[in-house]
Amino acid sequence: MAALIRSDADGSWLPVREEPKALLAGVLALLVHVAAVVALTFGFHIQTQRNEPVSAELWAALPPPPSVAKPAPAEPEPVPVVRPEPKPEPKPEPRPVPRPVPKPPPEPKEVPSKAPSKADIELKAKEAAKAKQAEETKKREAEKAKLQAQSDAKAQAEAKARAQAQAQADAKAQKEAQAKQAEADRIRREQDELSRKAAEAAASAQAKLLASHVDKIRGKVRRYIVEPPGVPPNAMAEFEVVLIPGGDVLSVKLRRPSGNALYDEAVERAIMRAQPLPIPPEPQLFPQFRTLLLQFRPQE
Question: Which of 84, 249, 261, 290 has its Cβ near the most Cβ atoms within 10 Å?
């Protein structure tokens, strides 16, 4: 059958001459397909595992090449047949060597037991009684130890409570004692202050009384002074006068002269003439008037 090609000029179909090389190419292609089918079939048989199915399309004859007005194409190079490499056969796995099964040990022969004698029975009974007695003794001792521990714990708790109560009582007593001591110190300070004030008042009163009686004594002595002429107005004579109860003069001593001997003699004579001197009648005040320092100035 001749191949036809359509002309581009008028659209008519023109016959194309068949080339003998196209037939040769078709034969070679067919041989390649047949070789591929054989290789696949052989590889399938030598595989140990199942492969995925491979489909191949067989052609009885190559389709005619399209007719073109161009020059005939060059003869295609034959396609090399690629054969799949056969997979190596798996090595057979070594079979496990069975282990020798150990023989079961021989069953011990039953030794006929002898019937226990009466002595053995009594001995076992005594041992059981002793064990029971020891167990009871152990239980009693454990219970006794437990009770003793409870008693000791209770005694310790009571002792601790007593100690705490005693500590609280001591602290309270100490606090009360401190408060009492503080109050006593306050009262004593107040009493001391009152006593000091009273003593100061008494001393002031006595000083006033003493000053008052000293002024009376000096006034009485001045009445007996016969002042000589020519005595400076700033002259001052001081005498130490020792008295006895009642106001009498025991002794007179010039402690500081005035610088005018006539004035000093006149004052000493006046002291002796003015006795008894006016001292307080209270006997408890006499020690303050036993020794007097009397000062005299003219024009007083």
Answer: 249
**Do residues 300 and 245 make contact, with C-beta atoms less than 8 angstroms apart?**
no
The first and second tokens of residue 98, run together, are: 């069975």
Strands (E) located in the chain:
3-6, 13-16, 237-243, 249-256, 291-296
Closest CA to 65 of 10, 8, 21: 21
Q: pTM surpassing 0.85?
A: no
What separation in angstroms does the CA of 226 have from each of 25, 188, 221, 261? 195, 57, 11, 13
Q: Which residues of 35-46 are buried (b: 16+ CB within 10 A; e: fewer)?
A: ebeeeeeebeee
pLDDT in tens, 101-125: 666 666 656 555 566 678 888 888 8
Whether the CB-CB separation of 264 and 257 falls below 8 Å is answered with: yes
Spans of the chain below 70 pLDDT:
1-22, 42-116, 300
